[in-house]
Backbone:
């Protein structure tokens, strides 16, 4: 699980470490890397964030949240509730 921290590019730019297509793929596929890359582009370089990738990950996360809520409510009587 710790390896995921190193492939997000918190302390370095993934595109400079992995040149070519691999850095771009890693930034697009990893949601945390995409957010960090967009924040870095805004704060350090003054570029506008990539709206498409941010909206895409927002949509994906909302879908997963809705699925999780539906599963939680449908199985709420089958697991032990801790008060």
Residues:
């Amino acid at each position: 699980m710790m390896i995921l921290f190193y492939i997000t590019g918190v302390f370095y730019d993934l595109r400079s470490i992995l040149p070519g297509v691999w850095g771009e793929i890693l930034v697009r596929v990893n949601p945390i890397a995409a957010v960090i890359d967009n924040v870095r582009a805004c704060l350090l370089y003054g570029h506008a964030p990539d709206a498409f990738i941010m909206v895409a990950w927002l949509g994906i996360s909302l879908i997963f949240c809705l699925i999780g809520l539906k599963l939680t409510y449908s199985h709420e009587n089958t697991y032990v509730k801790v008060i």
